[in-house]
Amino acid sequence: MAGFRDNTTTTLAAALKDQRVTRIVLLTNYTAEKDTWPNQQQLPGTYLAINRNVTITGAQGTQTVLDMAFKLSAALLCGSCRLTVQNLTVANERRGNGSPWDFFVGPAGSSKAAIIMKDIIRLRYGCTSANASIIVASALKRPDWLPGSSSGSQEFSVEDVDFQGHMYPQSLVSLDYAADIPRTVQEGRGAFGGYAVWGLNVTQLCMRTVATACLETKSVDACVNDLIDQALAGGQSAQQQQQLPPGLLAAAIAVPLLIALLLALAAALFISRRRKQQQQQLDALKQQQQQRLLQQQDSAKQQLVTPGGKSGASVGRQFGTDADPETGLLPNPYAAEGSSSVLCQGPLAGGSCWQQACLTSPIVGSLDNQEVQFGKLLGQGSFGRVYRAYWAGREVAVKVIDHDSEAHASVANEVELMLSFNHPNVVRALHCLTWTHHKQADVQPACGDSQHSLKQQQQQQQQQQQGTPAALANRSRCETWLVLEYCDCGTLHQIASEWLPGEECDEQMLERLLLLRDAAQGLAALHAKNVVHGDLNSRNVLVASSASSPCGMTAKLADLGLSRVLQQHATHRTTQTVGTMSHMPPELLRYGRMSTAVDIYAYGITMYQLYTGEEAFRNLHYGQFYNAIVVQGARPPVPPDMPSDYALLMQSCWAAEPGERPGISRVLQCLDSMIKERRKRLSIDDTSLPPPEHSQLQPWQQQHRSSKSSWVPLANSTNGKPDEGSCSGSHSGSLPDVAEGTSVTTGVTQAAATESVTQAPTSHFPAVPVAAAAAAAQAEEHGNDIHHGAFI
Ligand SMILES: Nc1ncnc2c1ncn2[C@@H]1O[C@H](COP(=O)(O)OP(=O)(O)OP(=O)(O)O)[C@@H](O)[C@H]1O
Q: Where is the composition biased (Low complexity) (predicted)?
């Protein structure tokens, strides 16, 4: 706790509250305590009022640190009050975002309230230099809890130039952004939140500014955070260091040192964990290779065809579907082929390799033969090819992913997550093999000598962990084979392309709703385990035949967070956009904030795409898209012929505020009641939907897609879900009213906050979920992070 001096020693909040106090001196570094400030989301309308001119200062020449932190609190300056902050280093504990001044507000429209920064060192690793930031700041809506919020957008202007001193570059902070002001202009002042900010002798605002090229492809916050990462990794340029005043120079040396120390500590922890894991992997590998060698000696029958190997004769072969009545296994279509064994010759041509890791889903059970026999190419995504294949007596799809050894741990994490799911509406991952490839010269002799290979592997892994330049230059290429449940009907996108766009035909609508319901069930399974898909769109939903499904097909979620992880490690720009931009909600675009509510937004856009057959915002480039979604709050146009219940659910899913979107269980309830209504119209007299498919591994080889129009009456069973009939839109005048979505930022794995909800029975829109928002705010304040496609 810091002390203050003005006849008394007290907290900053108490001193500001006391209207007699006009000068507050910070005796020590201070970080605003969240408990001492009124929280606007818990106590709306109670803000700390400042009704006089007041100065907060550090002792002369000390540059004490004032960290206002980011709180959902506000101190309200009167219309003509001036808050002067001087002789301080101003910080904000939030990483990329937030000016310290977003804590203070003035009355809407006030031109006289002002915050004056004087003799301030304000350190900010990254700022944006885009002119667009002014537009964004201008159009920002004041949050409901701020005074004068009814007045709409923030005001922002650059006028009465007044900044002095060294600035890098000369810039003006407005909310989360810094706007460039040409050096010829003598700095400026901006008005926002009902007050003007003046900077007098402000020595440093931004260490670096974001390149416009980054802003063209990523969100502002993602770019700022990238910049911070670079700064943390590489430090600042010598030129910039020369410009620093002595106090700042000391800070500039101490801070990176501290950060380096922390990083070293984290790296040491990480390395020791990885070593342990790798030792385990090596042990397992050793065992497998020994077994494999024994098997090879016993039998020369097992043959392997690889996508890059001697597979020409096999590619394009169709599988039979006659399962052995006793074992339930399919005959091997390649058994008679004379293909050569590539054990330890590897899928990557021209060098040696070894099988580095091998994971099998617990749902598969023990296996005698894990070799993969490849069939025809099914498709190609941004990060690999997908083949039809035969594995362990099953017809499967194998995703072959190219990556380098650096990405291996992240890929393995995502794969492990996929292997852990066993739900009928999530594509099952059955098995995974990773091959690591080294140049022939690096590995002598060629593998086959498993002992030698293991030793080499250990050495190389050690080198890589140590990050020596030679090892980094020699970073190995890897190929991961992810064995997946085969989905014989393609993607939901392909299925939807056969529908007549926009036509409200009950049968077609029912099929659409049933498949959407499947996808929602998949999401519910993910969200129940605190996993966010993070890249939901109709191309990432696969469809398989299912005799037990009313429309003969079941939709299953694919991909989870794999694509995103691969993109993070990509050394080249892919031609396709990962994390389809059109499905990204404002909070993800703006703050990189990932939560279950991100999936719900994407679900709404998917509903639009499935109804209209059109990609939302197809022709917009990134800047236009960002402006439309984040700044203007635009959404795709609702077609006039779209049924009102469908439109209502879709629109509630893409609500701007994550807390206003329905939770996945509410989405399911709505879909159930919509399905029920269509079934009634089609005179299908069963009153309930079938329960979710049993989550055991199904004998896929026995599933065949029936004709899409061959409607099977729904089983007469109950799903046990209450049907409150409140999703029928204009009929009942209400909307889904359960809000979910812990608001958290991307990055680290952790537990989600439990939420309660506020119901809005009569309103067209759900009430703001106070507890949920508070939990979200708390999560944010505590730096709670999640990672899409990962446990939260
Ligand atoms: N389990 C599967 N069963 C049947 N076909 C599949 C399976 N997984 C993928 N496919 C097919 O392979 C194609 C490529 O899939 P992949 O996941 O590599 O890329 P994508 O999802 O289309 O693109 P991206 O990786 O860029 O998101 C899919 O469009 C689909 O047609």
A: 456-466
Q: Give the integer Cα–Cα distance in Å for 34 and 37.
A: 6
Q: What is the pLDDT at residue 499?
A: 79
Which ligand 1 atom is nearest residue 386's CA?
Answer: 12
Distance of CA 699 to the CA centre of its chain: 33
Residues with CB under 6 A from ligand 1: 378-384, 386, 397, 399, 427, 484-487, 490-491, 539-540, 542, 558-559, 563, 576, 578
**SS3 of 500, please?**
coil
Residues of the chain below pLDDT 70: 1-9, 33-46, 61-62, 69-74, 91-112, 122-209, 220-221, 224, 228-229, 231-249, 252, 282, 285-359, 361-370, 382, 406, 437-476, 501-504, 561-580, 622, 685-792
Q: What CA–CA distance (Å, rounded) separates 738 from 650? A: 14
Question: Is 556 marked as a binding-site residue?
Answer: no
Q: Are strands 384-391 and 372-380 parallel, antiparallel or unpaired?
A: antiparallel
Looking at residue 112, its pLDDT comes to: 67
Q: Which of 643, 248, 290, 635 is nearest to 449 (CA)?
A: 290
Ligand 1 mutation target, pool 377, 378, 380, 482, most atoms within 8 A of CB: 378
Nearest ligand 1 atom to the CA of 494 is 31
Atom of ligand 1 nearest to the CA of 484: 1
Separation of alpha carbons 224 and 222, rounded Å = 6
Rounded to whole angstroms, the Cα distance separating 5 from 9 reads 5
Closest residue to atom 15 of ligand 1, CA basis: 381
Distance 427 CA to ligand 1 centre (A): 11
- Residues forming beta bridges with residue 209, ordered by sequence position: 127
AA identity, residue 86: Q
Tokens of 41: 């989301």
Task: Please give the ipTM for the structure prediction.
Answer: 0.97
Taking the model in full, what pTM does it have? 0.50
Taking every pair of C-alpha atoms in the chain, what is the biggest distance, in angstroms?
95
DSSP assigned state of 166: -
Collapsing DSSP to helix, strand or coil, 239 comes out as: helix
Å from CA of 381 to ligand 1 middle: 6
- Please, what is the angle between helix 664-681 and helix 644-653, to 10°? 170
Other Cβ atoms less than 10 A from the Cβ of 687: the count is 12
Mutating to test ligand 1, I would choose from 374, 382, 386, 553 the residue with most ligand atoms within 8 A of its C-beta, which is 386
Question: 453: helix, coil or strand?
Answer: helix
Name the residue at shortest CA distance from atom 24 of ligand 1: 381
Give the phi and the psi of residue 68 in degrees, each rounded to 5.
-75, -15
DSSP letter for 489, please: T
